[in-house]
Structure formats: structure tokens, C-alpha cells
Amino acid sequence: MVGIVLITHGFLGQTLIDCAKHVIGDPLKNITAVGINGSGSIEAMTEKAAEAISNVDDGSGIIVLTDMYGGSPSNITKKLLESDNVYGISGVNLPMLIRVLTYQDRDIKTLIKKGLSGGSEGVMQIPLK
Fold this sequence. Notes:
The chain is 46% helix and 18% strand. The chain is of the alpha/beta class. Strand 3, helix 3 and strand 4 form a beta-alpha-beta unit.
């Protein structure tokens, strides 16, 4: 099963996981969050993120979801994409996470496509009455 790691500012990643549990139900498998709060060095935060990736890696691949491209979480993620088996997507939102979790048992290329489409399709204007 593809591992999912959320690397985000503060507690956003864990909060998104908690929201996904509310929507999908518990337990979620092979997923974890790393919060970046700026209190440690980039090297220490990168090591923490690498450990989180290792903890959910069963050989099926890893998708790292970050909140904002160009921020510390995505810059840390970029350092960890050296493996052919680790992929990063920025702009995580709840629809993206739900989609990734729903298709988590599929191959990693399919999961990336589903995550990207879920994230973008979940952003829309609420229709007027």
C-alpha cells in the first residue's frame, strides 16, 4: 500500500488527517504527518521527514503532500525526492487527501493522478441559490 506523508506548516497535516478520519472513518493506514514549525534547523526537520517516510514505506511508493509550493515543507520534500519511489505534490487540501486515501491501494502513478484531480476538482465556487 502506498505510504502517505503530509509535510506541512504547523499542525495542518495532522489536522487534515483527523478530518479525513471523520469523513472516511478510522483507521487510516500507512499515513503520517510532519509539522514544520521553524523551531529547528532545516537539517533536523529534513531528518524528521525522512524518518516519517521510512516509517510508512513498504516498497509500494510514497506520496508526500505539502501545503504550499516554495515554503519550507515543500523545500524539505524536494530534498527527499531523490528516490524513484518518492513523489511530492504541493497544495494539499482535504479533497486531495480523501481522494489519495480512497485510491491508496492502487499503483503510485494512478494515485498521483487521482490526488491532483481530487485537489483541483475540490476547489470551486459554491453556487448561489
